[in-house]
Amino acid sequence: MEQVVPHVVLHPLPTALGHIKPLLCLAQLLSEAGLHITFVITHHTHKSLENLSTLSTQFPNLHFETISDGLPDDHPRSLTFDFFYDIKTKTKPHFKELLLFLNTQSPTVTCIINDGCVSYPIDVAEELKIPIFTFCPHSACYLLSYFCIPKLIEDGRLPFSDDDMNCEINGVPGLEGLLRRKGLPAFCVLKDVQHPAFQFLVKEIFSMNGYSSGLVINSFDELELQILPQLATHYRKVYTVGPLHAFMNSKNGQYHSQLITSHACLWKADHNCIAWLDSQPPRSVLYVSFGSLIKMSISQLMELWHGLVNSGHPFLWVIRPDAISSEEEQMIPQELQMGGKEKGYIVDWAPQEEVLAHHAVGGFFTHTGWNSILESIMTKIPLICWPHMSDQHINTELVTKVLRIGVELEVCDRSTIQTIVETLMGTQMEEFQESINRIAKFAEDGILQVGSSSNHNIQILVADIKKIKLN
């Protein structure tokens, strides 16, 4: 009897590029391993992504399905409590309907790999008795910070007794010296732990590991050595399979490229910046980009501008069309629109992996999103960290205090920015470079050497999925 190919359904958090991109890389890896893959995105997100159909040509086992998120067209879909509550109730029936349909096809659904930031697929999987794995697109240290919340409530440390968000939180195994109040999930600032939003989000967290068959995480063993063993106590099994973007590119003979993952981009990249980089000396350029979500005030933009110009180092700066805070109706000042005079080059969006791999780039000024950290490590580019939200605060602690591959910008003023750029690109560049070269070697070995860390773990994941079909 011919063995049926396992069918895996993957579903990212809608609208979040930082979640879609790594899960799409995982989908490609599993497809290449011979599994039948259905990648489920919402109609709203699908409109923003380019050329997904070409991936199905490159990966014949990879298929895309779209569902309604149940929200009106004019819904802002920003990552707020209301959004998570809405998709919990309104997207769930559409996801369930698709799974029921897929189970009338061949092959039927073997398992689901779900973005751990949304719980409705777990509810549906449990209802339909389909095994499900939790995917973590961010750092292990941030995920572990979620699991300490009940103990902090029990100890009387939540809600916070004052407004000092820099206060260090001690006594959390695995996060010693890393966790501050600002590094906890944002809802922890609520003054009442019985608040409906607080209770809802805590329940969402602990649904991640209840029915889950295991945790698939975009990290690698040596990157979060002290954290991963503690995280493993919360899951049946943990598969560290990152950095997924580099893993996928290496499989396609395009190591350090952006060709495959560019399909998960919400803006059209300006490739003219590569020609400008070609004209710059090696390791001289500071790349500046704060991801797909961060918004700033006009005053912050101007402080950044003056700090970058005054540093004397050439810079490539991504300023998204929607980068200005909605409270401000002002246009981007003319001097920014004109570009960086002799030293700077400004674009709406850049092909980030290609930029970071360019010989002219020597530093990365970032919001410290997890994908950006991993991309920086793989291209051996030290970091200036300017965290704003979510996992970015604890990621910054990891980067600056444990890995020692970058420095934090704590105050956004031009003199501080000038000093910190001069530090990264000049006085301490060699020190940071030595650290990041060492960590990048661990990542490269884990991906490229058979039997090593991430390479081995992806094989174990595939084997475990195939075993489900045999049961």
UniProtKB/TrEMBL annotation:
Gene3D superfamilies: Glycogen Phosphorylase B
Residue intervals passing through the bilayer: none
SUPFAM superfamilies: UDP-Glycosyltransferase/glycogen phosphorylase (SSF53756)
Leader peptide range in chain numbering: none
Top-level EC class: transferase
Keywords: Glycosyltransferase, Transferase
UniProt GO molecular function: quercetin 3-O-glucosyltransferase activity; quercetin 7-O-glucosyltransferase activity
Keyword Metal-binding: no
Documented EC number(s): 2.4.1.-
Family of the protein in this entry: Belongs to the UDP-glycosyltransferase family.
PANTHER family named among the record's database cross-references: GLUCOSYL/GLUCURONOSYL TRANSFERASES (PTHR11926), GLYCOSYLTRANSFERASE (PTHR11926:SF1392)
Protein name: Glycosyltransferase
Organism: Rhamnella rubrinervis
